[in-house]
């Protein structure tokens, strides 16, 4: 078991780095450009530009993230809420969630990915 935990150290370091970077980056962007990202996000998609293509691709990844989180929790009411947080929160939610789950599962990657009941 300790080998699995040791193998997760780089993953956990990556998650912590992502958490710090996304909070700092989001704070700077929010302070400089305001906190309403939706007009810009969807406006680029409606304009059919490369930023819009990136936003659409990213939104598809967020859908996968939300569905995986809800599935991991067997589409329970709490799992659906967690899935919605994953969809709307992106990395700002998913990275802390995975960090927490990695400790709760004691490094068991099967449990991290599949949940405790699978």
From TrEMBL:
Transmembrane regions: 12-32, 52-71, 78-100
Keyword field: Membrane, Transmembrane, Transmembrane helix
Keyword Membrane in record: yes
Name this polypeptide is given: DUF2834 domain-containing protein
């Amino acid at each position: 078991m300790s080998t699995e935990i040791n193998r997760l150290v780089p993953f956990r370091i990556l998650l912590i780095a992502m958490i710090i970077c996304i909070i700092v980056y989001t704070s700077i962007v929010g302070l400089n450009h305001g906190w309403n990202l939706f007009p810009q996000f969807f406006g680029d998609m409606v304009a059919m530009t490369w930023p819009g293509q990136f936003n659409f691709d990213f939104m598809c990844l967020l859908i996968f993230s939300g569905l995986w989180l809800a599935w991991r929790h067997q589409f329970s009411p709490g799992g659906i809420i967690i899935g919605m947080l994953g969809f709307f929160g992106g990395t700002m939610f998913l990275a802390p969630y995975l960090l927490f789950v990695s400790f709760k599962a004691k490094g068991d990657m099967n449990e991290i990915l599949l949940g405790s009941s699978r």
